[in-house]
Specification:
Helices cover 45% and strands 19% of the residues. By secondary structure, it is of the alpha+beta class. Strands 2-1-5-4-3 form a 5-stranded antiparallel beta sheet. A hairpin with a 4-residue loop joins β1 (31-37) and β2 (42-47). α5 (141-156) packs parallel to α7 (186-194), α6 (165-177) packs across α8 (198-216) and α7 crosses α8 (198-216). The longest helix has 19 residues, at 198-216. It is rod-shaped and about 90 Å long.
């Protein structure tokens, strides 16, 4: 018990406690922040402990000897594993005194479980969907309009309101081939989806059909 109280009264703990507490509050409850004594290889203080260790327990800082610094006096992030299977991303920093001697070692251990769970959920949402059942949509001409225009936008990489005249002609050509305009109410829906006027749709469609007629003539 004496070692624990002595550690918590250590001037290094008083100096660095606000920093450690700030990190723990920002990342908690998913981050363990530990301040170590490099001379005794003991824990000085710990915030948001993830295991049973506490002040006065062995630090086991020898693991840092196997790592190359990623920056001056900084090691990591590197991976650690808890007994319950949780994976941690850890980073350690050497804190030096005014004589440039190692005074303390600050370690931050971030529990990756929430990140891995979130990544798993996002991967599930982003998984490929099954092919669209055409019989279900073959009578739904409004769905067909959205699908054709949306496919063109994705392939071209340009949003609807930045499609060029040639882009619109190409889209209208695909819609015409899909017999969308056989439906009397289709033109206003197409105009709304392309964000142009109905007169623009009618004009482009007439131009497209005239060009196709000329091209088909011998």
């Amino acid at each position: 018990m004496g070692n624990v109280e002595e550690g918590r009264n250590d001037p290094r703990v008083r100096m660095w406690a606000p920093v450690c507490q700030a990190v723990a509050l920002l990342l908690g409850p998913y981050a363990e922040v530990v301040l170590h004594d490099p001379d005794t290889d003991r824990v000085l203080e710990i915030w948001n402990p993830m295991a049973t260790r506490g002040p006065g327990d062995p630090s086991l800082l020898g693991e840092l000897d196997e790592l190359d610094p990623s920056a001056q006096d900084v090691y990591g992030p590197y991976e650690k594993l808890l007994a319950d299977g949780r994976r941690l991303s850890s980073v350690s920093a050497i804190l030096r005194d005014v004589q440039d001697r190692p005074s303390a070692v600050l370690c931050i251990n971030l529990d990756r479980t929430p990140l891995e769970q979130a990544a798993s959920v996002l991967s599930a949402f982003g998984a490929p969907t099954v092919q669209r059942p055409e019989p279900l949509f073959e009578q739904d001409w409004s769905e067909r309009i959205q699908h054709i225009i949306g496919s063109y936008v994705r392939e071209s990489g340009r949003p609807v309101d930045r499609l060029t005249r040639q882009d619109r002609l190409a889209v209208l050509g695909s819609l015409d081939e899909a017999r969308v305009f056989a439906v009397r109410r289709a033109a206003p829906v197409v105009a709304g989806a392309l964000r142009v006027s109905r007169s623009t749709v009618y004009g482009l469609l007439a131009e497209l059909r005239l060009t196709n007629t000329k091209d088909s003539q011998p």
